[in-house]
Amino acid sequence: MSLPKVTLFTLGGTIASTSTSAKSGGVVPQLNAQEILASVPQLEVIAQIEPVAFRQVPSGDLNFSDLFALASAIEVAFSDGSVGVVITQGTDSIEESAFVLDLLTPGGRPIVVTGAMRNPTQVSSDGPANLLSAVQVAISEAAVGLGVLVVLNEEVHTARFVRKTHTSTLGTFQSPTIGPIGWISEGRVHIPYRISKMKTIEHGPSTVVPPVAVVTCALGDDALILGEIESLGYKGVVIEGFGGGHVPARVVPAIEDLASRIPVILTSRTGAGELLRQTYAFPGSEQDVLSRGAVSAGSLDGIKARILLSLILTLAPELDEAKRAFEDFVQSIL
Predict the structure, then answer these.
(1) Is 169 among the residues known to form the active site?
(2) Which member of 14, 105, 158, 267 is catalytic?
(3) Are β-strands 236-241 and 264-268 bridged in parallel, bridged antiparallel, or unpaired?
(4) pTM, whole model, 2 decimals?
């Protein structure tokens, strides 16, 4: 029997990093796709890997245009017969890259994003095990129709809920709101929890993404930064409020003023759970802020709410249209 074909797109990151010299002690992304594959000989017996060296950068240097190009390349890979796609990149922005790709791709066949917390020069490097797990998920029927998945530490997470929660531990990737939807054990993929694919946002290679700011509320906060948002060129803003979606009362007038001209999205700085809607009624509460024109991010955290609003603004730049489109997406997520 012929082995299933999987396209591997490498983008750099820790999984592709090694030392440039004995003196520096630091590592940089420089291993190519073939070198990464060579570290996992077990792949030869489970899949036919088609390696594509797509980028070679730290993941913080990736941008929307890179991911637009990658989404298009993924569609080509599927049309050329790949049953699944695996993407390796730096872990710093995996939760964002995966979410963008989930919004850009149809989501029929598996797309799996992985990386490593420990680079190949370390004795306990996790890159090879993560890559093997990712390919096992990419060829699994259980992963079909789930959208983009993130696989590290033998756990399977959905793009919309996964977060990097620790600077260095191998178990850094968590989905605080729902947990992982599956796992890998002895080479077998188990995904008992099914989740519907999000809607797709159309894009083109030259799509210009409007800038969206993220503002996090803090103790003793004021409204000074909100007064500068528009002059800095931002076309929307995500406000990460306290707890269930609260802000200092003194900030509310600035939010209301801003929401009359550009989309203002309210989410929680906690990074988990669904934004409240009708529990509190004090000045600056979720009810107060939403009644003044802000839009709830639902279960999305601030980073992902920013991505969603940014992409929506490429198609719906007008205020009311953008707000309706954002609300429709939020309602479809859960």
Answers:
(1) no
(2) 14
(3) parallel
(4) 0.95
